[in-house]
Structures are given as C-alpha cells and as structure tokens.
C-alpha cells in the first residue's frame, strides 16, 4: 500500500504538469500568494486581531485612525481604522473570505450548470442543442457584468425587504453564476460533439446504457480538462464581478463587507485624507485577482498538448 502510494506521488511529481509548475518561478510565486490570501481569509476568526462584526467591541473614538507608521497611528491598528472604528486589517481578512466564498460558489454553480447543458446539447443534438446554443448566443451579446446586475436586481425585487440582507450572498452567487455558464457550455458542447462519435461511446450505446449514464460515466471525464482552466480564470472574474457589484451597492451589506464594499466605503472619505481605508482593500483585491489569473494562464498552457 505504501509503495503504491509513493509510486503515485512520484508519477504526479514527474508529470509534465508538475515539471511545468516547478520550472516557472512566476507560477510558484502566484501559488504561494494565493495560498497565503486564501489561508488568511479562511483563518480570519483566529488570526484577525479584532472582530469587525462585533458591534459591542467597536469604539467610535477609534474611527479614521491612520496606519501605525503615521504620526497619529496606533500600534493596535497597524493598517488604521475606518469611519466606524473597525480595524482595516481585520476587515480585509473577513472581507477577503466573503469575496472568495462568493467567487468559489459562483464558479461551482456556473460550472455545474454550463457543463450539464453543454453535455446535453452536444450529446442529444437536434432541437435540444439548437435551443441551448441560441440562449447562449443571446446571452453572449450582453456583457457578463450587465447580466449579473440585471439578475441581481430582479432577484432583490422579488424578495421581501426584510429578507434582502440575509439573502445577499445567495443572490450574488445566483447572479454571477448565471452570467458565466455560457463559456462552460460552449466548450463542453464542442468536446462532446467529438467524443460522442468515438468507438467507446458507440459501444456503450450498443449494450444499452442509458444516455445519462453514458454522458456522466464516459463522456464527462474526457471533456472536463478545459473546464478546470475556465474555472480557474473565472474565479478571478467572479471575485471582480462581486467586488464591482458591492462597490455599486448591489452586493453584500455594509454590516458584512466584502472587499468591494470596503473599497466603496473608503472612497467616500478618500478626498478627506483617509486613503488607507480604500488603498489596502484595493491592493488585496488586485493581488488576489492577479495571482489567480497567473495560475489560470499557467494551467491553460500546461494542459495544452500543443505547447508541451
């Protein structure tokens, strides 16, 4: 058992993808940055010096304090505080967690929906393929952000006012996921059109397997490679979309701020000299998106057999 496990690890380490990773310093740096940001975000309750969502611990006398290295800075708040007296460093940790949760859930929802519709369109063909692809083409004629903004507005309009704050994250996941499914569907459909003509699919049809079983057991494993690349790149896009919606006031409420909400709150006081409230969340968002994008670019090249 141990020898088999070691052999599997050695094969993985000696693979083309692993070699591509080991020989790319930019990719290694991006992976380290991503791990640091993700780890810090999800360990926020344990590593954050303050709980920015605990109203009882906030002191209005601590509001708008500059970073610790400034003249009026306090070492307790080394990145300063916002207008409510919340520690900026702690709010960044908690805000990053909200942004990542929304981004990951949105990508999972979009991938499941897009892969399912792509498999169905590519395997069934005919009227099913035509309907799904025409819907995808219509959606592609609009920017993804406008689709997300429209779905977000409609969903909020249908909810009672007292439930809108508690349903903010599910609404964001729904709106962002529905705006990103098309790319998965088109990619999986193209791969499925190729796979369904191969002998192993025809053999499965001959022995009488159900079409759903053929799609899930035989076709899906052979078309999932490009989906991983799309999901990695779309994660960065989903985080940016969530931040943009929150910046416009259509995202999570100020009581549970994401990075976009923090930037929106800070920009209201930017011209009064409180630059740190906006700058540090903005830098965190930029570094997070850049690191994930670089990982997505590497994964796309590493899984492309033409570039090996």
Automatic annotation (TrEMBL):
PROSITE patterns in the record: ABC_TM1
Pfam families registered for this protein in UniProt: BPD_transp_1 (PF00528), OppC_N (PF12911)
Domain ABC transmembrane type-1 residues, every copy: 96-296
Keyword terms, alphabetized: Cell membrane, Membrane, Transmembrane, Transmembrane helix, Transport
UniProt keyword Transport, yes or no: yes
Residue intervals passing through the bilayer: 26-48, 98-123, 135-155, 167-188, 226-248, 269-295
Family recorded in the similarity comment: Belongs to the binding-protein-dependent transport system permease family.
InterPro entries: BP-dependent_transpt_permease (IPR050366), MetI-like (IPR000515), MetI-like_sf (IPR035906), OppC_N (IPR025966)
Gene3D superfamilies per record: MetI-like
Subcellular location: Cell membrane
Protein name, entry field: ABC transporter permease
Species the sequence originates in: Lacibacterium aquatile
Lineage: superkingdom: Bacteria
UniProt membrane topology term: Multi-pass membrane protein
Predominant place of localization: membrane
